[in-house]
Amino acid sequence: MIYNEEYETLPREALEALQLKRLQSQIERIYARVPYYRAKMDEAGVAPGDIRTLADISRLPFTTKEDLRRNYPFGLFTVPLERVVRIHASSGTTGQPTVVGYTKRDIGIWAELMTRCLSAAGATQKDIIHNAYGYGLFTGGLGAHYGAENLGATVIPVSGGNTKRQIMLMRDFRSTVLLCTPSYALNLAEAMLDMGIDPKEMALKVGVFGAEPWSENMRQEIEKQLGLKAIDIYGLSEIIGPGVAVECVEEQHGLHVMEDHFLPEIVHPETFAPLPLGEKGELVFTTLTKEAFPVIRYRTKDFSRLITSPCTCGRTFYRMEKVTGRSDDMLIIRGVNVFPSQIEHVLISVEGVEPHYQIIVEREGSLDTMEVQVEVSDSIFSDEVKKLEGLAKTIQKEIKDLLGVSCKIKLVEPKSIQRSEGKAKRVIDKRKI
Amino acid sequence: MKVEQIAIFLENRSGRLAEITGILAEKGINIRAMSLADTSDFGILRLIVNDTENARRVLKEKGFTVGTTEVVVVEVKDKPGGLANVLQIIKKADLNIEYMYAFTQKSGETGLIIFRFEKIDTAVDILVKAGIRLLSGEEVYAI
Fold first, then answer.
1. Considering CB atoms only, which of A376, A389, A415 is closest to B9?
2. A76, A253, A264, B30: which has the highest count of C-beta atoms within 10 A?
3. Do β-strands A298-304 and A281-287 pair in parallel, antiparallel, or remain unpaired?
4. Where do runs of H (alpha helix) occur along A34-137?
5. Domain boundary among A281, A297, A327
6. Last residue of a domain, one of A309, A327, A345
């Protein structure tokens, strides 16, 4: 179902006119109110009046996580704190946390965008929504919560952790929609079986999964194990949180970007030059309606491309291809770029292999080594050494064929890889560079 | 004439073997025969116990990966040439052995050889026809 028919199906021409109008007033406001942005624009030799077409956006300087950190905590806000009603922040595991703020109107828009996403996934006010995204400074929990309430559905604000209790509640409440990270969805499926509960006995019909990159094979695995439709949702706190883009249940192919509120661009990952529509590169967003914390050309470090062909669901918004890697997660192994999701893709394609894995990178002398740890489940276990070694060789060969990198496959005991309660930790990089 | 054996996946970590035998001891399960196949990274522990079903269940509950397979237990005379005779028969019949291990009985007169064949039913037929004594599950569990 399309929640906001008027905007989500705007003809391209009208949409682009709206985008330009909103972009111009947003840039004007930011230039007038944030000294940091003003200095950057002056340095780049561009004034708000220079933005005459949407293509002119490429004249504006990029914003990166570094810029956000430099202005910690509130330096990039465009409104006084008294107008800010909510603060969210990143975990800050890789440095200083990045802090974002929302006005009342921002929160309202965000709730609507999340409602659009849930509707696109097929949820309605009749649904019981189990929201296992973490509540707190992380945008996932509250973002999804407001959207689900706005939809009129019954929300179970269960947040992350305490998996057994979650499963009990999900079963007893007959929850129909599951919101969590894809890795946690698999964790739930596994925990259900451990508790002697068949996941198919749950009332779940759809899951809206995001906050980490996941492969197409992972989707099939989740759908098979939990017996639901798995929908990908995209967002990041720097832009607004979850609700920037979502797949429609009709196609499950590419995520419709909420283009009336965000302007997407794809740029070359090294030169940062704008790429023609349809080409793959780094995804960049400019907010068009944010009040408290607007961003100009924010570099997401996510790789994707835009799909411009019309979609059967009727939405006119361009779709961004499912993000399968972030440049932050990208490993460079002996000069070859490797994304954890590519390894995941290979593992799940090998019959019987469970999608619980971890990648250990080390450096021996001057050579990088990559070890992929795979759990030995009942379905791949054999009492014969040669069969287990054969399995390890098969996985090794498939990875080599796909990525061109040799790795060591280490078979490990079940449950020895830590289970995710939010974003899964796939890589342990022990290299000291 | 087939005997159930359980196999357990083990990472090469210290104390794992002690943990497994400890779990079985606690449940009063007796190990009749065992062998450990090891590689540089992992091991496969194969056990014949007096209560296969129970052993499998308690180990699974403790989170181990456990499989059950069928093996053939052959009785051979505990003297030079006892095993050679059986292996001759196996060779002539062109039977593939995946692995084997041996243990002796209390009496010391006969030894027991445990075979894992690729084609277990064919192997049983051929050995029985050749007059080799195979032990039943009950006999092995009760040793």
1. A376
2. A76
3. antiparallel
4. 35-44, 65-70, 104-120
5. A327
6. A327
Angle among Cα A74, A139, A135 to the nearest 5 degrees reads: 120
Checking if the pLDDT of B105 tops 80, the result is: no
Structural domain count, chain B: 2
Q: Are residues A323 and A421 in the same domain?
A: no
Q: Which of A377, A383, A416 sits opposite B44 (nearest CB)?
A: A383
Is there a single domain that holds both residue A411 and residue A320?
no
Asked whether residue A52 falls in the same domain as residue A201, the answer is: yes
Helices (H), A124-215: 139-151, 163-172, 182-194
Interchain proximity A384–B41, CB inside 8 Å: no
* Residues of chain A contacting residue B9, judged by C-beta atoms under 8 Å apart: 376, 381, 388, 411, 413
Question: Is residue A114 located within the same domain as residue A259?
Answer: yes
| Partner-chain contact B67 A378, CB within 8 Å | yes
- Smallest Cβ–Cβ distance between B67 and the set A381, A385, A389 belongs to A381
Query: Is residue B135 situated within a structural domain?
Result: no
Please provide the average confidence, as pLDDT, over all residues in chain A.
93
pLDDT at A273: 96
Please list, in sequence order, all residues whose beta carbon lies within 8 angstroms of the beta carbon of residue B91, skipping any fewer than 6 positions away. Answer: none
In this structure, are strands A128-131 and A177-180 parallel, antiparallel, or unpaired?
A: parallel
The angle at the Cα of A84, spanning A78 to A88, to the nearest 5 degrees, equals 100
Say what the pTM is.
0.83
What is the widest separation between alpha-carbon atoms in chain B?
45
Q: What is the ipTM of this complex?
A: 0.87
- Chain A contact for B9 (CB, 8 A cutoff): yes
Partners of residue A411 in chain B, C-beta under 8 Å: 9, 11, 41-42
Q: Is B53 in the same domain as B80?
A: no
* Average pLDDT of the segment spanning A334-356: 87
Q: Which domain holds residue B88?
A: 73-130
For residue B39, give how far its alpha carbon lies from the nearest alpha carbon of chain A (Å).
8
- Both B63 and B10 in one domain: the answer is yes
Our CA-based measurement puts residue A406 at a distance from the nearest CA of chain B, in whole angstroms, of 17
Q: Which residues of A328-342 are buried (b: 16+ CB within 10 A; e: fewer)?
A: ebebebeeeebbbbb
Report for A49-63, A343-357, A377-391, A402-416: range of highest mean pLDDT: A49-63
What mean pLDDT is predicted for residues A388-412?
92
Residues A156 and A184 in one domain: yes
CATH number for the domain that contains residue A368: 3.30.300.30
Residues in A closer than 8 angstroms to B42, CB to CB, are: 376, 388, 411
Q: What is the average per-residue pLDDT within A368-395?
A: 92
State yes or no: pLDDT of A108 exceeds 80.
Answer: yes
> Percent of chain A, pLDDT > 70?
98
| CATH classification at residue B91 | 3.30.70.260
Element spanning A263, H or E: strand A262-267
- Smallest Cβ–Cβ distance between A376 and the set B37, B65, B98 belongs to B65
pLDDT at A161: 87
A284-321 residue pLDDT tens = 999 999 999 999 999 999 999 999 999 999 999 999 99
